Automatic annotation (TrEMBL):
InterPro entries: Ribonuclease_T2_eukaryotic, RNase_T2-like, RNase_T2-like_sf, RNase_T2_His_AS_1, RNase_T2_His_AS_2, RNaseT2L_C. It is found in: Cytoplasm; Vacuole lumen. PROSITE patterns: RNASE_T2_1, RNASE_T2_2. Residues 255-298 are annotated as: Disordered. This is Ribonuclease T2-like. The keyword Protease does not apply. Residues 1-21 form the signal peptide.
């Protein structure tokens, strides 16, 4: 996914699915929420009092909820501009049939997406959605029925859920963290500073991070909005009033069980967005100096010179350096692949590379191993799975093994 902008983030709302629906009130020269110096009377075009909009996400591991390589949606919350908030603002719109409402507006694709990415950890998605709209959606001033021209009953419901999903698709938390070498692990720990640096690089600002029992489990992205939530411009900002509760060091980021998110025909996760929405760059690690082009695949790819980029859970996290260790903070080593028998051998500036006592290593006294490849990934004894005790962080390197360790990785060839 391409990098988030730190200035104005415009997210286009999909067109309403039925000609019977009305439309949000047109807003001319709208002001940015939380930035007015005088009272604004038209709260259909100015979010008030909840002018700080938070797109919130979960990382549930016990039980695991959603795909193993994607965060899930918590909601869209209208906080006052000081971190406080209102809730359950209109009991008459505490709807108990969210699924039926979305179906009546033809939002079957939205529903399918929500059932994969906006999921309840007890399995009761409908009640979760009802709670989010009743508690938070009814407090977004621009969703008031009076803010629509030719209002159709419950028209604000598909607008609320569509907008929340559209925002979520631009905020790929998993990739943001993975690109900084922060990936789920049963043994590795991270610092708050590392995590916030990853968000500041991609989102432009720090976010609110939440932990449970020392493990990262929630992220809140803060925005001000110029205009209505339905049609306005979302502008990233630093959180106001809300504070992170994670410790400064020793933060766990536990792995989920289950399967990864399906990919689109382009190979991107289905959490990816259209080209109109800025996202993080898929397959690029900001901590290495290696290029990010994707090899064409097949054993023939391994010839000449190239890098060995490390992938875990579908995201690139660093690469191999010349000794054969996995690193996320240095320059990728240039390897030379040379055809040999039914495969190829590898060599770095340290010497030949091989597997010795299950360890991948390169050096002057190493006996070269004949490797194979599949779809551009390095294989040993017919398997592209390699392992490390943890994900490397900072100046720490990790040895790479062919026998099971805490973290499974694979290495993709990139010709240079």
């Amino acid at each position: 996914m391409a990098s988030f902008v730190s200035r104005a983030l415009a997210v286009s709302l999909l067109a309403l699915p039925t000609a019977l629906a009305g439309s949000p009130k047109s807003c001319l020269n709208p002001q940015l929420s939380c930035h007015n110096t005088t009272a604004v009377s038209d709260t259909c075009c100015f979010n008030a009092p909840g002018g700080q909009l938070l797109q919130t996400q979960f990382w549930d591991t016990s039980p695991s909820t959603g795909y193993s390589n994607s965060w899930t949606i918590h909601g869209l919350w209208p906080d006052r501009c000081d971190g406080t908030y209102d809730s359950n603002c209109d009991p008459s719109r505490a709807y108990t049939n969210i699924t039926a409402i979305l179906e009546s507006y033809g939002k079957t694709d939205l529903l399918a997406y929500m059932n994969s990415y906006w999921v309840d950890n007890t399995g009761d998605n409908e009640s979760f959605w009802e709670h989010e709209f009743s508690k938070h959606g009814t407090c977004i001033s621009t969703f008031e029925p009076s803010c629509y021209t030719d209002y159709t009953p419950q028209e604000e419901v598909p607008d609320f859920f569509q907008k929340t999903v559209d925002l979520f698709k631009t905020l790929d938390t998993y990739t943001t963290l993975a690109n900084a070498g922060i990936v789920p692990s049963s043994s590795a720990t991270y610092t708050s500073a590392q995590i916030q640096a990853a968000f500041k690089k991609s989102f432009g600002y720090e976010v609110t991070i939440q932990c449970s029992s020392g493990a990262l489990d929630e992220v809140w992205y803060s925005f001000n909005v110029k205009g209505s939530v339905q049609t306005g411009t979302f502008v990233p900002m630093s959180p106001v009033g809300s504070t992170s509760n994670c410790p400064s060091t020793g933060i766990k980021y536990l792995p989920k069980s289950g399967s990864p998110a399906p990919t689109t025909s382009s190979g991107a996760s289905s959490t990816s967005t259209s080209s109109a929405s800025p996202t993080t760059t898929s397959g690029a690690s900001p901590t290495t100096s290696s290029p990010t082009s994707t090899p064409t695949g097949g054993s023939g790819t391994f010839s000449g010179s190239g890098y060995l980029n490390a992938y875990t859970n579908g995201s690139q996290v660093g690469c191999l350096i010349s000794s054969g260790t996995w690193y996320t903070s240095g320059t990728c080593a240039t390897y030379t692949a040379k055809a040999s028998d039914s495969g190829f051998t590898l060599k770095s500036s340290k010497g030949s590379c091989g597997i010795s006592n299950s360890l991948f290593t390169c050096g002057s006294g190493v006996t070269p191993t004949v490797f194979t490849a599949s779809n551009g990934y390095l294989q040993y004894s017919g398997s592209s799975a390699f392992y490390a005790a943890a994900v490397p962080s900072g100046s720490t390197q990790q040895k790479v093994y062919t026998t099971s360790e805490s973290v499974e990785i694979s290495f993709q060839w990139q010709s240079v």
